[in-house]
Automatic annotation (TrEMBL):
Keyword entries, A-Z: Hydrolase
Source taxon at top rank: Bacteria
GO biological process: DNA repair
A GO-annotated cellular component: cytosol
UniProt cross-references to Pfam families, sorted A to Z: HAD_2 (PF13419)
Molecular function GO terms recorded: phosphoglycolate phosphatase activity
Protein's recorded name: HAD family hydrolase
Length: 213
């Protein structure tokens, strides 16, 4: 079972919107609108910020962002995995499923979730991110390292994610895809139906959906 992180395992967009506006406020800049954030969500942060805040001093933003990011993590305002989502992972593990993460995050953005004392320890076997993969979704080669290192074949895998890019990558790799719609950022109509094996309204529905495949 391969799991996306942002807006799948944890609801990230809303928290990231607040975090990025906090950094803008520290720079004395006006906040971005939620509509702009949603329209550019999924892009690499430093590529998206000039669109979210035109005229932004990108170097200064890049300097301030990690500090605010760590503050949000310490305060439990970012990357919070709800207990019901952890229960869903436990059901998958109890059923004999191997749980892996595949995200487009940079290594430094995911490292805290891979710590030995994190709630994912014992639930997730491995994580694949920009630090240990050569390609990013929607390129289907984003799965190359995962498949090579685990010895799994695409027909033995299922990927759950929240974006059409996730679906495109999975379909291109020959992997079944479950669309998770819990974040509300996207609707099922945003996906090409040829790329979607099943859909769930919330992450806790995942174990049952996998059993029904």
């Amino acid at each position: 079972m391969i799991v996306d992180v942002d807006d799948t395992l944890c609801l990230t967009e809303a928290a990231s919107f607040d975090l990025e506006n906090e950094v803008l406020a520290r720079m004395g800049r006006p906040p971005m609108s939620r509509a702009v954030h949603l329209a550019t969500w999924g892009e690499v942060l430093l590529d998206a910020m000039p669109h979210r805040s035109p005229g932004l001093d990108l170097d200064r933003f890049a300097e301030l962002f990690p500090v605010a990011h760590q503050e949000y993590l310490a305060d439990g305002r970012l990357d919070v995995i709800p207990p019901e989502n952890l229960d869903a992972l436990d059901k998958l593990v109890a059923a004999g499923r191997t749980v892996l993460l595949l995200t487009s995050r940079a290594q430094e953005e995911i490292e805290h979730m891979l710590a030995p004392d994190h709630v994912l320890a014992g639930r997730v076997t491995a994580a694949y991110h920009q630090g240990n993969t050569r390609f990013r979704k929607p390129d289907p080669r984003a799965f190359d390292e995962l498949l090579a290192e685990t010895g799994l074949t695409p027909d033995r895998c299922v990927y759950v994610g929240d974006s059409p890019g996730d679906a495109v990558a999975a379909a291109g790799a020959g992997i079944r895809f479950i669309a998770c719609l819990q974040s509300g950022v996207r609707r099922l109509t945003d996906f090409d139906p040829r790329h979607v094996t099943a859909s769930i309204e919330a992450f806790p529905d995942l174990a049952q959906a996998v059993d029904q495949l």
